[in-house]
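Late entry, written up from scratch paper. The run itself happened at the end of the previous shift, but nothing got recorded in the book at the time, so transcribing now.
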Amino acid sequence: MSLTAGDDIGRDVGRDLGPYIGRYIGRFAPSPTGPLHAGSLVAALASWLDARAHQGRWLVRIEDVDLPRCVPGADHIILAQLAACGLHPDAPPVYQSQRGALYQRALDQLIAAGHAYPCGCTRADIAQANAALGLSKPRHGELVYPGTCRPANGGLRGKPARAWRLQVPDAPADHINWHDQRLGPQSQHVAQAVGDFVVKRADGLWAYQLAVVVDDAAQSITDIVRGEDLCDNTPRQILLQRWLRLPTPRYLHTPLVLAEDGQKLSKQNGAEALDLSDPLRALEAAGAALGLHVIAPTVGAWLTQAMARWTLLAKDRTGNLA
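Output as recorded:
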């Protein structure tokens, strides 16, 4: 029997993390587009605490797949910021920019199964098609791809291929249902929410959705703890996991840190770099955003107390720490 992309990923995991398979493995996956800010530290701290509460491993993955947006040296700054806060990964960081072969194998598997197809549409084409349907881009949302280049709709029709898209199920009953450990039951009809989404971009770079799914499987990630702004990405990732025959991790999406104008604190809206002249104060602020009001004299003591409180919260959420 031939080896599929999923089988390759599983084989790589067995080689890299053999003694840890079956145990809790979490991760923090920042993009090196600049230093961490206060919101980033909340996500990093929550993922670290959850891993430690479960006596598991905590990994750092540098998500530098979008190379044009990456800032040279930002990865080293991020790792130094984490270290200043006592958040040390249990293995050297993995860089997405070095993992293109894994992503290509996954795309080849999707194409062979008829789940992915080439698309020749520009953003202007998609906007025009949406306008013809009376649809507009929602605030903080995205234009729904109307399936123009789907094989059943005639394919490229002479246009050059620009990107590769995943053909998502579009029957009325085709909802992706999942459970978030903080937010509870979740559901999304991916076809209605985003349509056929990109897995390889028109500029030749790998799309976030495919890369993150492949990497989570390759690193045997069992639990994903990240910011609530990524919650609506989860159904797309679960769909990819199913079609690549990969396991679905547990998910926990943390509260967002908001700017004064009520918008999510992010690098895109000018969030200031984390001030680590006093790491303990930075941890106290991040902990407060997670409902952990801990006072301690040192970073190490603060992390120990915070982990004890997080462990109690984890037991309340799940009933156990398995």
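The mean pLDDT is 88.
(Scratch paper discarded after transcription.)
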